[in-house]
Amino acid sequence: MATKHEQILQYINSLPVGEKISVRQIAKDINVSEGTAYRAIKEAENKGYVSTIERVGTIRIETKKKENFEKLTYAEVVNIVDGQVLGGRAGLHKTLNKFVIGAMKLEAMMRYTGAGNLLIVGNRTNAHQYALEAGAAVLITGGFDTEDHVKKLADELELPIISTSYDTFTVGTMINRAIYDQLIKKEIVQVEDILTPVDKTICLNVQDTVSIWYQHNYETGHGRFPVIDQNRKVHGIVTSKDIMGYDHSVLIEKVMTKNPITVLGKTSVASAAQMMVWEGIEVLPVVDNQNRLQGMISRQDVLKALQVIQRQPQIGEKLDDIVTNQFLPIEDESKRSNVFRCEVSPQMTNHLGTISYGVFTTLVTESVNRYLRAQKKGDIIVENITIYFIKPVQMESMLEIHPKILEVGRKFGKIDIEAYSDGLVVGKAMMMVQLIER
Fold first, then answer.
1. 316: region left, alpha or beta (phi > 0 left; psi from -120 to 50 alpha)
2. Is the pTM of this model over 0.70?
3. What is the domain-level CATH number for residue 41?
């Protein structure tokens, strides 16, 4: 039976897009306390079911799919630009396809403005009206208002008119940054993208006996199963090692490994991989915030996902990408090791104009990662790193990084790194890593 919290989430998810909801109304409809309703609405906001806007309230919005993640709703735009909704509130749930900056004559502006667009413009009332008639929403910059008949038209067409105190350039930058962040999020594969869902996961109940484990083991060939109760809460995990030597009539809860390591669906696959390697485990139960089982992931699932990530083109550039985008391997003259060369750009320096500690750490880690991958050793998880700065590295200097394997096994490695600038040693590092085999 679903809990009150789950019932509220199911109720919110069933509401039509654009519906306005409130804590008091939810509490009354579902017959729960306002505190329970508030917590459920907050989780619904985290899941992308609703969006809360100051002076407007909470509205049901279109749930985003992974492939459509970079598109924003008008409700999200209001929050991004700290805007005020002047009209067309019923359309805040809609998704915008692109935004147009109205820095041209009216006729030219309308050629670029169409249905599903957002026109960013100042106090040009005619442009506001024509954009609405073309099916576009309007974002008015500079804190200006618009005419009452335009607000009325926005209400009739259910297309939002938003006012913000920011200038046009700042607004365009803020929205572009938000879309860029969405693109980066889209690239990051999460556990919920690769899990085997709970309805396809074989589970044992705390009241089952060891004989049930043998039955599932015979049917599936698997030896690891999560142990749950009637509310799907995870109590343990049981493996072939756990049941060894026990009679078939013994209860599973007597032999299972209690309080197993679990992950949330929003955990990145890279974090799950690190957890599995460090803890030496083959499978991880995926749970929600109430520790209810959502599915399972295996080490094979994680490795496949990591291989897919490497083959994907990078869309949104992250800070690590900016640091390493001109990071080119060259062959050392001695042929003893690879050398990675990089120019220190202004973005890579601190307030003193020398390379920052974080950037240097990123360069060292990335050079080791690329070097070991080229040696067919797989990806790395950094276990320990010690860095020594010997000389400051100035802006626009050429930095060369020389990684050298001191010791490497099947699952771990010890690497020595030296960094040179103008032929002088400027930094050293010692790194211990665990290897993710391919």
1. beta
2. no
3. 1.10.10.10
| Identity of residue 356 | S
The answer to whether residue 314 is domain-embedded is no
Give Cβ neighbours of residue 82 (< 8 Å, ≥ 6 apart): 164, 165, 166
Q: In 3-state terms, the chain is what percent helix, strand and coil (to 5)? A: 40, 30, 35
CATH of the domain at 200: 3.10.580.10
**Residue 369 falls inside a structural domain:** yes
Cα–Cα distance measured from residue 225 to residue 202, given in angstroms and rounded to the nearest whole number:
7
How many domains are there within the chain?
4
pLDDT exceeds cutoff 80 at 372: yes
62-108 confidence digits (pLDDT tens): 665 544 445 788 888 888 888 999 999 888 888 888 888 887 888 88
Q: How far is residue 232's CA from residue 287's CA, in Å, rounded to a whole number? A: 9
The full DSSP string for 84-99 is EEEE-GGGTTPBPSEE
Q: Are strands 20-21 and 57-60 parallel, antiparallel or unpaired?
A: antiparallel
- Distance (Å, whole) CA 71 – CA 205: 42
Query: Which DSSP helix (H) or strand (E) runs through 412?
Result: strand 412-421
Reported as type and span, the H/E element at residue 167 is: none
- Which CATH number covers residue 135? 3.40.1390.20
Which pLDDT tens digit goes with each residue over 272-308? 887 887 787 888 999 988 888 999 998 888 877 776 6
Last-in-domain residue among 244, 274, 308: 308
Q: Please identify which residue in the block is written with the tokens 């709703």.
A: 73
Residue 240 in 3-state DSSP? helix
String of DSSP letters for 192-219: HHHPEEGGGS--EETT-BHHHHHHHHHH
d(CA 113, CA 96): 12
Can you tell me the distance from the alpha carbon of 294 to that of 285, in angstroms, rounded to the nearest whole number?
8
- Domain around 159: 66-184
CA distance 222 to 421: 54
Asked if residue 313 is part of any domain, the answer here is no
Q: Could you tell me if 174 and 127 lie in one domain?
A: yes
Structural domain ending residue among the three candidates 284, 308, 332 = 308
